[in-house]
Design a protein that fits this description.
The protein has 185 residues and is an alpha+beta fold. 43% of the residues lie in helices and 13% in strands. The strands form four sheets. A two-stranded antiparallel ribbon has the order 1-2.
Length: 185
C-alpha cells in the first residue's frame, strides 16, 4: 500500500519524547502507518526530535520498534486500558540502562561551541526510555490523553490550564473537527 508522504512526517505535538516516539506509528489499529521504515528514518527522527544526530542500522531499527511498542503498551495501561505487563517494563528498563554520551564544549578562535558527534541509536533510545519512565511515574502521567478525533491515534500531555484539551493539535485534528461541525449545520 502506498502511503502519502505527509503521513510519513513525524508529528512532534505530544509534549514528550516518549509519546512522540510512540507516534511514529500512525492510525494504529486501522491503517498502522509505519513512519520508521528504515534505519535512516530512525536517525532522522532523532535529529528532528532535537536529540541530535545518530547512527542507526537495521538492528537498531528493530530495537527501536520494540521499545516503541513497550512504551505504547505501558501508556495504555496508564490510561486504564490494560494492566501493565512485566515484559514491557523490562524492555523499557533495558533501554534506559544504556549509557549515553555527555555533551561537551569545544573552543575555536576564542569562541565556545557545542561539539556534536553522531551518537549511536542505542543512546537516543536510552533517552527516549528514560523520558518514558519519567512520564509514566511522574505527575504528567495523569495528564496523558488520547486525541478525540476518531481517525487519530496520537497521544499527548494535556498541559492546558483547564486540563480539558481534546485534540492532539488544534491545527490538525481540532481544525478537522471544527470543519465537520460546520459542514453538518
Amino acid at each position: 500500500m502506498r502511503v502519502a508522504v505527509d503521513l510519513l512526517t513525524f508529528p512532534f505535538i505530544s509534549g514528550r519524547h516518549a509519546l512522540d516516539f510512540v507516534g511514529t506509528v500512525g492510525k494504529r489499529g486501522s491503517a498502522d502507518i509505519e513512519r520508521l521504515q528504515t534505519a535512516d528514518d530512525l536517525a532522522r527522527w532523532s535529529e528532528e526530535a532535537g536529540l541530535g544526530r545518530s547512527i542507526a542500522d537495521d538492528a537498531d531499527l528493530e530495537a527501536a520498534r520494540r521499545l516503541r511498542e513497550a512504551l505504547y503498551s505501558l501508556v495504555l495501561s496508564t490510561l486504564g486500558d490494560d494492566p501493565a505487563r512485566p515484559v514491557d517494563v523490562a524492555v523499557v528498563n533495558e533501554f534506559a540502562s544504556v549509557e549515553t554520551a555527555a555533551p561537551s564544549l569545544g573552543l575555536r578562535s576564542g569562541t565556545i561551541y557545542r561539539k556534536d558527534s553522531a551518537a549511536p541509536a542505542s543512546a537516543v533510545l536510552a533517552v527516549v526510555a528514560r523520558d518514558g519512565i519519567d512520564l509514566l511515574t511522574g505527575p504528567d502521567a495523569a495528564l496523558i490523553r488520547d486525541c478525540e478525533d476518531p481517525t487519530c491515534t496520537l497521544l499527548f500531555v494535556d498541559t492546558s490550564r483547564s486540563h480539558r484539551r481534546r485534540w492532539c493539535s488544534m491545527n490538525r485534528c481540532g481544525a478537522r473537527a471544527k470543519m465537520r461541525t460546520l459542514r453538518s449545520t
